[in-house]
């Protein structure tokens, strides 16, 4: 049945007028004529960030100089970490904003395995974000205790835990398909088999409600530059459940993870609590920018964010089904909303070229090999009319075979 586009556009406009998150869009610097569907890879610039950074550079650094360390800088990892804790259902003092996601995962995995010396193996879902496996390999090589990295299918992850498995790394949302794990259920199943559960929240934090504490999660890491809009290369974060903090040790025993760094002791003593997961000097500019993005997420209702994410995703899938059925374009993401994160992944034999053709039209999305077109759904700034226009642009690119041009075949360094 043909879509009545006029009626649908009016319906989308009405939904946007009634949207409780509508005012959040004004908090972002969005280029004119662009529909940004890549916030699951790099969030756009919050309007507050340049103001905050200018103040930091000109006043705190320019005028306060080194004295500014004693006026908020040194506490930033804990300050921002405690704010992120509210987004992930953790308690005060359980989250630290620091370093990259990869570095934090190295710390968390090393710390977890040290608590279970009789269980030296790491288990990861096959086909999930590869850096997690890379880091796991590095941890096992560094430990040198015969530990093995095991890969298992997503549906068989818990069942693959055996007597050697010390920790299981799980991406909350699969970066390729957008499939969403049941965090509470899987944590319980993993722990019942004697292993720790370590979650990678990079593709879910800021996009949906997360309850690490209620689920009894052991460790978690996450990214600051996707749905948290902290800027390119923003610091990540690490979570360790309070019940582990007195016993846990992480391997990057740097200056700022010391109990008293300015005592300049020659012997390392870990700081109390989550602060022991710190390593080097805090990246003040990056943390300040991240705090701006985190504040935007905290100002919104995560339940409303999730509800709008589902609505936008459902609209996109409905439009793809209706307008693109004649083409080899398939919805790869789960169609059941409860099983899907805040993205819709499509497959097409020429997904890279289709992606580049859409970008040329101002519809920014991304490509993942071999044939995946990823459309990120960020409810804080996306509107229903944006989804409608993006879907119509996709259909037009396919109708006109617009993607079949030499300029769209060029592979850039970042796709």
Would you write up a description of this structure?
The chain has 415 residues and is of the alpha/beta class. Helices cover 35% and strands 13% of the residues. The chain starts with a helix and ends in a 16-residue tail after the last helix. The protein is globular and about 70 Å long.
Q: What does the oligomeric state look like here?
A: single chain
Mean pLDDT: 96
Order of helices and strands: HEEEHHEHEHEEHEHEEHHEEHEEEH
Strand content: 5-15%
List how many beta strands DSSP finds.
Answer: 15
Distance between the termini: 35 Å
Number of helices: 11
**Percentage of residues assigned to helices:** 25-40%
Q: Report the C-alpha radius of gyration, rounded.
A: 22 Å
Supply the helix-strand structural class.
Answer: alpha/beta
Molecular shape: globular
The profile of the biggest β sheet is: 7 strands, mixed
Spans of at least 5 consecutive residues whose pLDDT stays below 50 are none
| Strands side by side in the biggest sheet | 4-10-9-8-7-5-6
Give the gist of this structure.
This protein is an alpha/beta fold. 35% of the residues lie in helices and 13% in strands. Strand 8, helix 7 (212-215) and strand 9 form a beta-alpha-beta unit.
Which features does this protein show?
4-stranded antiparallel beta sheet; single chain; 11 helices; 7-stranded mixed beta sheet; alpha/beta
